[in-house]
Design a protein that fits this description.
The complex is a heterodimer of chains A (about 250) and B (about 425). By secondary structure, chain A is of the alpha/beta class. Chain A has one domain: Rossmann fold, CATH 3.40.50.300. Chain A is about 40% helix and about 30% strand. Classes of the chains: A alpha/beta (about 250), B alpha/beta (about 425).
Chain lengths: ~250, ~425
């Protein structure tokens, strides 16, 4: 269970999150929607521990562990995963090596045996097949020369390999055509189960047709201003943020 | 220290020459004596370059002029521990002297310069410019070197040139290596410069390399000398029609190291690769200086040089490319990049293109910056600890240069040096 309580954060001295309270029980998928500048990406970076996103108040507990006290890599080891809106390109870092290094780093902290190159390849190939990823993406530099859709699929591949307890998907649908969107959604849906939860951050309802959330929250001006079931997303799509925000105010 | 007269700063070397002149190889050969005396006159007249000399503006030789060295003419007796072989054959120099007992040169036309200097005198200063200060210093005092000829059409395979400074004395070592590839010949030369830990020495190698038509040499220099050592190398290279000089220089050791290459492309369709990397730790200075002369049409040159700097360190890159009027259809590319891991690190980068031909394709670029925070964060969110993440990114930065080296053992030698350097300096960075 991820429990965010009255979280406030600022970027370059400017308050962005102004008291976010949110609870995501194990096994549930929640969506956060909101207009540009609402603080959606700030929330995901603050949870992942990015430098420059200064927490000024509140708490975040992942299964009772204080996330805010941890380094980004410790948060990952604790089971948090952030799928980036803009995955970083790493020229000179082979994708396979990167994925195996990450997997083994996480496995070490969990007290599990490391996987060797052969075991890893077997594992990665199976996951890649599910995500319709060409195998040569393992050989290339991390995200180098990948199309927008390939980058997002590479994020989902990492999630599938690292098996987090909670995944934050930051606008994973942006820049995806409908086929890629389906593949990505299938990848997330395949993870769903009692030990996995997700926070899906999106502008649009269309991703939520494929990843049907248990709860939908509306983030505006650094606060959750409305929460509801999947129908809230449909209302937002139909009425726009203005209507829902007026009502909340 | 202020050097009071410009002619005075080479005094220690000149004095040593005066004392050694009768014992140096070629002492009985008039032409060799004449070359050495000419070098002495030159060094007496203009001295070793100060920072007022443009080509030496960023690299200050004062610490070397202050240091006290002795000659290393007496072979060292103590047991020498050699690293494992990288090639089929190896030429070993200990404190600048060829060690036949440690070398294996089967099937090669190779000799010790000390033994054959009378026969090869005309080759001295035939490629390297006698007026270059590091060439003059070497001419004054060279004690030995490798003379290697690869005959026409012969693929000589891989040869390792290993240069060890024993650290017995604070010595100066001035090997002169003469390498000639005849028409269509091939050679992979992996050169490793090592020193016993803590050795303080000056290593001043000069290479004169001639690449005939259709010949190709891959020359990978791996300089991993002690952090108290000084390394001042000069490489003179001439490449004929359709010949290739495929060079890579790694500067990963030494308190002060400079590797300077002067290369001329003299016939159509000749090619030059002057790639390299520099790994510079706290208190060190590394300098890669190249002068590339496109003197014939339809030639290609490629240069990627990467410098990683940690602690209080300095890096220098000077890359001059001259495209003469007759060198039409030249295809040139130069890129130099520096990664500064500390706020106390400094890189001086001077690309210099002089183009007199009007139909050429020449591009160049330079970047300098710190590790990318976004990349670091991305790796850490995948559970990769911050020190591992830094190591991954530093290696990736270097990889773009190292992966250009096609010869696998050569590339492995470079990767090993990178690993060793990072394990020593990564934490502090």
């Amino acid at each position: 269970m991820l429990r965010i309580e009255n979280l406030t954060a600022e970027v370059e001295g400017k308050p962005i999150l102004k008291g976010v309270t949110l609870e995501i029980p194990d096994g549930e998928v929640h969506a956060i929607m909101g207009p540009n500048g609402a603080g959606k990406s700030t929330l995901s970076y603050a949870l992942a521990g990015r430098e420059g996103y200064e927490i000024t108040g509140g708490s975040v507990l992942l299964n009772g562990q204080d996330l805010l006290e941890m380094e980004p890599e410790e948060r990952a080891a604790a089971g948090l995963f952030l799928a980036f809106q803009y995955p970083v390109e790493l020229p000179g870092v082979g994708n396979a090596n990167f994925l195996r290094t990450a997997l083994n780093a996480i496995r070490r902290t969990r007290g599990e045996a490391e996987v060797d190159a052969m075991q890893f390849l077997k594992l990665a190939r199976a996951r890649m097949k599910e995500l319709s990823m060409p195998e040569d993406m393992l050989k290339r530099g991390v995200n180098v020369g990948f199309s927008g859709g390939e980058k997002k699929r590479n994020e989902i591949l990492q999630m599938a390999l690292l098996q987090p307890k909670i995944a934050i998907l930051d606008e994973t649908d942006s820049g995806l055509d409908i086929d890629a969107l389906k593949i990505v959604a299938d990848g997330v849906n395949a993870m769903r189960g009692p030990d996995f939860s997700a926070l899906v951050i999106t502008h649009y309802q269309r991703l939520l047709n494929h990843i049907v959330p248990d709860r939908v929250h509306v983030l505006a001006d650094g606060r959750i201003v409305a929460s509801g079931g999947p129908e809230l997303a449909h209302r937002l799509e139909a009425e726009g943020y203005a209507g829902v925000l007026d009502e909340a105010a | 220290m202020i050097i009071d007269t410009p002619s005075g700063n080479a005094a220690a070397f000149l004095q040593r020459y005066a004392g050694l002149a009768e014992r140096l190889p070629g002492a009985q050969v008039g032409a060799v004596r004449a070359l050495r005396d000419m070098a002495a006159e030159m060094l007496h007249a203009s001295g070793l370059p100060s920072r007022r000399v443009e080509a030496w503006h960023y690299t200050d030789l004062t610490p070397i002029l202050r240091a006290e060295f002795r000659e290393a003419l007496t072979p060292v007796d103590k047991a020498i521990v050699l690293p494992p072989m990288r090639g089929e054959r190896r030429a070993v120099f200990v404190d600048g002297r060829f060690r036949v007992d440690l070398s294996s040169l089967e099937g090669l036309e190779a000799s010790s310069l000390a033994e054959v200097v009378a026969e090869v005198t005309p080759r001295l200063n035939s490629v390297a410019e006698a007026s270059e200060p590091m060439v003059a210093l070497n001419t004054l005092l060279f004690e030995d070197g490798l003379v290697l000829d690869v005959p026409e059409g012969v693929d000589a395979g891989r040869l390792e040139l290993l240069s060890l400074a024993s650290g017995e004395t604070a010595s100066t070592i001035h090997p002169r290596h003469l390498i000639r590839l005849a028409r269509g010949a091939k050679l992979v030369l992996i050169e490793t410069a090592l020193s016993a830990s803590g050795a303080r020495h000056l290593h001043n190698p000069v290479f004169e390399i001639e690449v005939a038509e259709d010949a190709k040499i891959t020359h990978v220099r791996v300089q991993r000398e002690a952090e108290s050592a000084y390394h001042l190398a000069h490489l003179g290279v001439r490449v004929a029609r359709r010949g290739t000089y495929d060079g890579f220089v790694l500067n990963a050791g030494g308190k002060l190291s400079r590797s300077e290459t002067h290369l001329a492309l003299l016939g159509p369709q000749a090619a030059a690769h002057l790639n390299g990397a520099q790994l510079v730790g706290d208190g060190q200075l590394a300098d890669t200086t190249t002068a590339l002369d496109h003197a014939a049409p339809n030639c290609a040159s490629r240069q990627t040089v990467k410098t990683v700097l940690a602690g209080r360190s300095r890096g220098v890159f000077q890359g001059k490319i001259l495209v003469r009027r007759e060198a039409q259809k030249t295809d040139g590319y130069q890129m130099n990049q520096a990664l500064l891991l500390s706020e106390d690190a400094e890189i001086d980068s001077k690309p210099q293109l002089e183009i007199y031909a009007d139909d050429v394709k020449c591009s160049h670029g330079a970047t300098a910056g710190a590790l990318d925070e976004d990349s670091l964060f991305y790796l850490r969110t995948r559970g990769i600890p911050v020190d591992t993440a830094r190591s991954i990114l530093v290696r990736a930065f270097l990889q773009e240069a190292v992966e250009i080296v096609e010869d696998e053992p050569a590339r492995e030698a470079l990767e090993e040096a990178v690993t060793a350097w990072w394990s020593q300096h990564g934490e502090a960075a």
